[in-house]
Design a protein that fits this description.
heterodimer, A: mainly alpha, ABC transporter involved in vitamin B12 uptake, BtuC, two-stranded antiparallel ribbon, 14 helices, 73% helix, B: mainly alpha, two-stranded antiparallel sheet, 12 helices, 75% helix
């Protein structure tokens, strides 16, 4: 092969990589939103209005009035975006860590429920000043999440039980256990519905933004993300987790403790899901209702997949998803389009992001078309 | 026969019939998953495929009278069945193209397909029916049930063959029961079955032996889509006569569990599906007692977990002894 053809090939390869890295995500987002718009247009009588609400409904609105001057309206809604983004960041980490070891653990839901339960139990039943009990709340929640996350890992390493199946079953059990306790021994007899007593005020996390539930968890989230990144990229355990995910056969040959990496990755996932549990109990709701909706874990899954399991990208993916979701709720309230269109958009984004050869193929087809046209 | 024995036999027959009914959707989906699993592609999208088939089956059969006025009403459910299958096939096709042509990770893409199906069905439900919960507002037909003429002197046989209320068993229940042995024969004795297993065992060797690997992979995935779709249609056009949001309720994943539990054999998968059906029946039976419902709902997942652990422990013991 002559040098010039080699260089041409290298140049082509580089072009492809640039295309992959730089254009992929924007193109994927645009294409998915376009499909979402097409779906909206098909069912709605006011598709433009609906889609505009979807895209901007989550933003606060600046309004000027002669009496009060400039005011930010709809802060409650934007607060909801930030609250969701924080929860989803933790849940995204909870999914991303096992996925890095190619363990398809879907157990974030159950881990979060049990961690929230543990946090509420410690808050309600352990006396003492806040600076002692609050750390205890976190420790209890994290230990619960870690243990419940490790369980499917052990089931897999010891009994080769497929983790997709076991985590889903463990979710069902965890949610029922949660409901059993909340409607049973942890129930507030004074309340008119099935709910735990209000957690003591001193254990509610301090508020950052008025009229919302944005608490210091917002500041903790970047730290936890940093912790996850450090664990994954700068420790031996993290290296083993990544190696097992990328090349399990090689890892085994090289003497890496594959089994430990497997269950550890899942247990760490549970550890991070626990923060979402504390966020739900000690910041957002301040008490636990029996009908806490399951399914948040799957939204964490969406976030992790969108961020391609890269911890540092997860807060951004979480924010984007929370933003779209809040916009979708606004859209559902004010127009005739239901909010599930966001699920479809997100699913398409994931499909397009993981379809790795799609973009190069399209680019090549386009180039050959252009060349043929030029000739 | 003494009266006690007779009533015991009736009860047992009723429970068996209930187990068959509960196991059918899981069995159909599990057979589908088994086909693609044996061809080397784990189809985790079974849940979503069941869901879209269930949805489109109901929608099309409910509207068939409006769209095809010259058609006899007896054909409406079959038209719905066809539409449901087509929907499941289309979605499987998307999954197959993403995986085989564009290099998407099959498990991640499968999870995405599940999310897509959950969102799409509720979105369309809200848009077409105006209700996010179910299609209770639509009057959708069900596929027919087969009723066997049984003499009155064998009531237990009547209950077993025709259900506790004598309404007969759903036609897809028989499809599932016949499908299992047919599938086993297909995999064992036909050329395409052997190709399919060869591709799953060793793709490169199969390719070098001249087997059209790509086509086999496509065919296996699409077949799994058809079978999962039948499972979904059974749910919405037989088990119930309407579509509910998220009506599969994890049965697609139970089907996956059945495959692993059955050690990737047809007979094993069949038994595992029956076990899951039985645990559902057990839960409904316990539901009548004075036990907190939350504990009752824990029974099916616990049975699944224990069964997986037991089969894993047995495999370990076997591996150690050999």
């Amino acid at each position: 092969m002559s040098e010039s053809t080699a260089q041409a090939l290298i140049a082509q390869q580089q072009r492809r990589q640039i295309l992959q890295q730089r254009w992929r995500l924007p193109l994927v987002i645009l294409a998915s939103l376009a499909v979402g718009f097409a779906m909206t247009a098909m069912v709605s009588e006011e598709p433009l209005q609906a889609f505009l609400t979807l895209l901007t409904g989550a933003l606060p609105r600046l309004q000027w009035s002669p009496e009060e001057g400039w005011r930010l309206l709809r802060m409650v809604r934007f607060g909801a975006v930030i609250e969701d983004a924080v929860t989803l960041t933790f849940l995204g980490l909870a999914v991303a860590l096992p996925f890095r070891a190619r363990q398809f653990s879907l157990g974030a839901d159950g881990q979060m429920f049990l961690a929230a339960l543990a946090a509420a139990a410690v808050s309600l039943y352990v006396p003492g000043p806040a600076f002692v009990v609050l750390p205890l709340v976190f420790v209890a929640a994290c230990a619960t999440g870690f243990a419940w996350g490790a369980l499917p890992g052990v089931l897999k390493t010891r009994y080769q039980a497929n983790e997709i199946v076991t985590t889903l079953m463990l979710n069902l059990i965890a949610i029922q256990f949660y409901r059993l306790l909340v409607s049973g021994c942890m129930r507030d007899p004074g309340a008119g519905f099935l709910v735990t007593p209000l957690l003591p005020d001193r254990l509610i996390l301090p508020l950052l933004l008025d009229k919302t539930n944005v608490t210091v968890m917002l500041l903790l989230a970047p730290l936890v993300v940093g912790l996850a990144w450090l664990l994954l990229m700068r420790t031996t355990w993290g290296y083993e987790i990544r190696l097992v995910g990328q090349a399990p056969a090689f890892a085994r040959q090289a003497g890496v403790p594959v089994e430990r990496a497997m269950w550890l990755s899942m247990a760490c996932g549970g550890f991070f899901a626990a923060f979402a549990g504390v966020h739900v109990s000690n910041a957002l709701l301040k008490r636990l209702p029996v009908d806490l909706t399951p399914g948040l874990g799957y939204e964490g899954l969406l976030v992790a997949l969108l961020a391609r399991n890269e911890p540092r990208a997860i807060p951004f993916a979480a924010f984007m998803y929370a933003y779209l979701r809040t916009g979708a709720q606004a859209m559902e309230r004010t127009t005739d389009v239901s909010r599930e269109v966001v699920l479809v958009i997100q699913a398409l984004m994931i499909l397009l992001v993981v379809s790795e050869r799609l973009l190069p193929r399209l680019a090549e087809a386009w180039r050959s078309l252009v060349q043929r046209g030029a000739r | 026969m003494t009266p006690e024995l007779l009533s015991g036999g009736l009860l047992l027959a009723g429970l068996l019939a209930a187990m068959l009914r509960a196991a059918t959707p899981i069995l159909l989906a599990a057979l589908g998953g088994l086909v693609s699993d044996l061809a080397g592609s784990v189809n985790v999208a079974l849940e979503g495929l069941m869901l879209v088939a269930a949805f489109f089956g109901v929608i099309v059969s409910a509207h068939a009278g409006m769209w095809f006025p010259q058609l006899a009403p007896a054909w409406y459910p079959w038209l719905g069945c066809l539409a449901g299958l087509l929907a499941a096939l289309t979605l499987t096709g998307v999954l197959a193209v993403c995986h085989l042509e564009w290099g998407a990770d099959l498990i991640v893409a499968g999870i995405a397909v599940n999310i897509l199906a959950a969102g799409l069905t509720v979105f369309l439900l809200a848009s077409l029916v105006g209700d996010k919960g179910s299609t209770a507002a639509l009057n959708s037909p069900v596929l027919p049930s087969l009723h066997w003429p049984v003499t009155a002197d064998r009531p237990w046989l009547n209950v077993l063959l025709n259900g506790a209320y004598g309404q007969g068993h759903h036609v897809l229940l028989y499809v599932a029961l016949l499908g299992a042995p047919l599938l086993a024969l297909f995999l064992k004795y036909t050329r395409y079955g052997i190709w399919l297993r060869a591709v799953g065992e060793n793709r490169e060797a199969a390719f070098n032996a001249g087997i059209p690997v790509r086509q086999v992979q496509y065919a296996a995935l699409l077949l799994s889509g058809v079978l999962a779709g039948l499972g979904g249609i059974y749910l919405s056009m037989g088990y119930l006569s309407l579509f509910q949001a998220d009506m599969t309720a994890g049965r697609g994943f139970l089907a996956l569990a059945a495959i692993f539990l059955g050690a990737r054999s047809v007979a094993g998968t069949f038994c595992a599906a029956m076990l899951f059906g039985a645990s559902t029946v057990l839960a409904t039976q316990l539901g009548a007692q004075q036990i907190p419902t939350q504990l009752v709902y824990m029974v099916p997942p616990l049975v699944t977990l224990l069964a997986l652990v037991a089969s894993g422990a047995r495999r370990r013991a076997k591996a150690r002894s050999s």
